[in-house]
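INFO  loader      accepted 1 record
INFO  loader      residues=340
INFO  predictor   begin
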Amino acid sequence: MATTKKISATEAGKALKRLLSKAKNAENPFPGVTDATQVLIQSFLVWEWNGSRASSTWARMVEDVTDLNELRVTVVDDYLEYFGGGCPRAEERADRLRATLRGVFHREHSTDLSGPAGGPKKEFREYLDSLEGMSPFVAARTALIAASSHAVPVDERTLRLLVKSGVIDSDATVGSASQTMSRLVTAAQGLETHLALQMLSEKERATPVMDLPGTVAEDPTPKKVKAGKGKKKATAKASPAKPAAKKSEDKKPATQKATTKAATKKSSSVKKTTKKAAAKKTTVKKASAKKAAAKKTPTKKSSAKKAVAKKSPAKKAAKKTAKKAAKKTAKKAAKKSTKK
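INFO  predictor   done
INFO  writer      dumping tokens
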């Protein structure tokens, strides 16, 4: 089997130097805070999350509670409201924080960590590591800021960044990576290195290697060029669905046209039938009127003709008789004249 080559201390140091040179003006999301209890809670908020989001969550917590001891008995649902949406490992974060604060209260009879933090640094770190719900990142960050211990906090986001940059071996764990970083970085450079790695991991949006149940991973925001390509791909993939939409849209007007055509056909047929009926009625009426008129007029004419026909023979007879009478009178007058 082929074995991966281990990164030497010299190579890791050079790779770390190149990596840290990319970080400029790294800021602490909680500037000036050194109280051990406050740093502990803030470290749980920064763990596997964004510094600015952790800062706003801390502000909501402080505004809502009157004493940090209340966070020990705060229910998980209230913590989820403090975190807001998009918080990775939200329920696990809340459970760990509550369990750690309960462990501190059982030992100190309060949530004040000023006593253990004021003792030897090594003992304080061991104290933190032994608390229930504690994570290596929170213990290292609390010891670094509250007690100025020699530590470099590493969570899975930071580990992924270090492996990608060639600083840490790919098979390293969070605990072993934190120890390696403590050997590469001096105690005076611990806080500066932590803030730089925190800023770079937020830029890279290095998501956790494994999301535990009940957690939400942050959505990675790629660069502008990649985002444009992704949008083009998304639109290209979504484009085949457009013809189907067009077909469905075309079908709707076709059906509407068909219904309108059917309606117009019905209306036209109704109009035609009504027109035909009206035409039939009018033609029947006209025909009947004409027939009636035709019937009436011939009878009148025929009766008149018959009357004329009846009257004409009588006139002829009268004329004949008048002629005969005139002839007789003329003959008589001629006879009388001859006798004389």
